[in-house]
Amino acid sequence: MSVSTKKEKILIIGIGGGLARITCKLLYKINPNIEIVGIDSRPVDHTIEIPNLKTYRIQYRRGEFENLFRTHQFTKVLFLSRVTHSSISSNLIKKRLNLSLMGTQTILELCLKHNIERLVILSTFHVYGALNDNPVFVYEDAPLRASLAHPEIRDVVEMDQKCQSWMYEFKDQINTVILRPTNIIGPSLQNGITTYLTHPLSFYPLDFNPMIQFIHEYDMAKVLVRSLEDIPLGLYNISANEYLPLKEAVKKINPHAYPLPIFPLEKINQVLNKTFIGVPNYLMDYLKFPCLLANRKFLKIVGPDFFHFNTRESLETLGIRRFHALSL
Amino acid sequence: MLKINFLKSAYLREVSQKVDERIVLLEKRYQDVQDPWGLNINTLKKSLKTLYPLYDKYFRVQNFGLENIPKTPFIVVANHSGQIPIDGVLLIMSFLMKTPEPIVLRGMGERFLFKLPFLGKLATESGTILGDRKNCRYLLSKGESILVFPEGVQGISKDTKDFYKLQDFTFGFYRLAIEQKVPILPVSIVGAEEFYPLVKQNKKLAKLFGFPSFPMTPLFPLAGLLGAIPLPSPVDIHINKPVYIDETLNADAPNHKLEPYVKEIKNIIEKKIHESLPKRRKMFDF
What we know:
The complex is a heterodimer of chains A (328) and B (286).
Chain A: E1 9-13, H1 18-30, E2 35-40, E3 53-57, H2 62-71, E4 76-79, H3 90-113, E5 118-122, H4 146-149, H5 154-169, E6 175-181, E7 183-185, H6 192-198, E8 203-205, E9 211-212, E10 214-216, H7 217-229, E11 234-238, E12 244-245, H8 246-253, E13 258-260, H9 262-273, H10 281-285, H11 296-302, H12 311-327
Parallel strand pairs in A: 1-2, 1-4, 2-3, 4-5, 5-6, 6-11, 7-10, 8-13
Antiparallel strand pairs in A: 9-12
Helix pairs in contact in A: 1-7, 2-3, 3-5
Chain B: H1 2-7, H2 10-30, H3 41-58, E1 62-64, E2 75-78, H4 86-97, E3 105-109, H5 119-125, E4 129-130, H6 133-141, E5 145-148, H7 153-156, H8 172-180, E6 184-190, E7 200-201, H9 203-209, E8 215-216, E9 236-239, H10 255-276
Parallel strand pairs in B: 1-9, 2-5, 2-6, 3-4, 3-5
Antiparallel strand pairs in B: 6-9, 7-8
C-alpha cells in the first residue's frame, strides 16, 4: 500500500471495536491527510492517537445519520457495525430485525444521496452457516443457509442479501464492496471466537472436530483499507490460505485444554441463553461442522502474498493474550 | 489374563508393525498437505490397528486383481451390500494395506453420518468425505482417488430376495470421470450380503427415525445392539481392469447417451460377482 496525500473523509460506522482502531491507524499511515469520523452506539475509546479522527457515540437513528451526512462531506464509508444477535425472546428478535434492516437501508440510501464514492460493508461468513453438508470450500455464490437451522440469525442474513441486491442495483453510482470474513482473531478483539480460544477454561469438542480457518485482525484491517482503495465492486470471502482442525487450534493456545462433548453443552447453552449469559446457539454449530471459505476471488486481485500472518502466527498472538489474562 | 495375552500376541504385534510401515509411507505423502476435510493420519493409524484383525481374521478378506490399480487418480465404482457400509470400510482397508503403495481411497459418506457425534468425527478423520459433487471434483483435481457406490442406499439396503441383484446405477460418477479425465476402476465385492443373511426392510420405521433404511433381521432390533453384529462372512474383493473414458464424450450429455457406458461398468461388476459366487468360501470355515 503506497502513501497517498489525497484529501479524503471517511465515515467509519462501528468505531468502538478493536478492528476499527487498527483500520484507523492503517488508514492514517497510508494517507496522513485523511479525515476520519467514527461513530458507534457503544462506548467509544477516545485514546486512538490519530490526528483528524473525530469519534461520536450516537444512537443509530435516521435523524442522527442524516445530520452526520449533512455536516460532513464523506467520500467513503466503512460499515463495520452489525446489530448483534441473541435468541432471548421472539419480540426482541423482531425488534432487532427491524432495527438492523431499517438501519442498513438508511445508511445505504444516505450513501447514494450524498454521492459517496465507495462503500465497504463488513458482513460475516456466519451467513453461510456451519452445516454438516457444507462442501469443503464455500464460494461467494453459495446459498446463505445459516437461518435454516437458526432463525435468530436471519437479520444478519437478510442484511447481507439486502446489501448485495443494493450493490448491483446501484453499481453505476457507487462502488460497493461486501466482505464476508472467516473467524477474525487477534489480541485487540473481543468477538466470540477470540473469547472462546483465550478463555482460561478453554475446551475443545470431544465428539466433533471441524476444520477451521482464521484471519488475523491486522490482515483484516489491511483488507478493509485495500477495499476502501481499489477493490472492484463485488462480494468477497476473506480467509487465510490455511485451515486446521479445531482441536489443534485450541491446543496451540492452551495445551491443557480439556475435551467436552458438545451435545450436552448445546442443551445447557440453550437454557443459559434464556438467562442472558449463554452463547448464541448458532455459534455452537461452528464447534461441530465446518465452514471453510474459498478465498480465490479476493486473492486473485490482491495477490497470494497479501496476508502477513499465517494461521500459526495468528494463534500465537492469541496465546500471548491468554498468557497475560492468566497472569493478571 | 486371557485378554492380556491376546493383546500381547505375536499376531497383534505383527499387525501393529505392518500398519506402522504403511503409515510411514502415507505420512511422507501427506506431510506438507493439510487435508481440508480433516483426514488425520494418526486417527487412521489407530483405526487400522483396531480394525485390521477384523479385516484379516473375522471377514478374512481376499483381494484379487490388485495389479489392475492405476498409478494415476481414479474412481472406484463398486457394488454396495450388507445393510451397513462394512463393505466400504473393507475396500478402503484393502487399498491402504494391500496395494504396493498405500492409497487413501476417499469414501463418500451420507449427509446424516456427519451429524452424528463421534461417528462423524471418526469417519472424517479416517478419510471419509461428504458425498458431494464439488468435493469429488476437488479431490480428483488434487490427485486423490475416490470410492463411489452408484447404487446408493438402494444397493446396501436390500431384502434377502434381492441379494446380489445390482440396483440401478446413478450417472454422476461417469460424468465426473469424463469431466476430470480419470479412469473408472470397477470393483466386485462378494460376501458382504451374508453379513445379515435374513433381512426385511422396514420403511415405516426408517421414515419414523429419519434413517435412510431400517433393516430388520431375526436378531435386530430384538436383541438390541448385539443383534447388529454382522456374521463372519468371508469377503472377496475383485478389482477389475480399469475403464478409460472416451475423451470425445461430453460430461453434460443427456442420460440416454451415457447409459450404454454406465451399463458397461455395471455389467463388468455383475459378471465378476456371478463368476465368483459359486466359489464363495464357507462362513464358519476359519
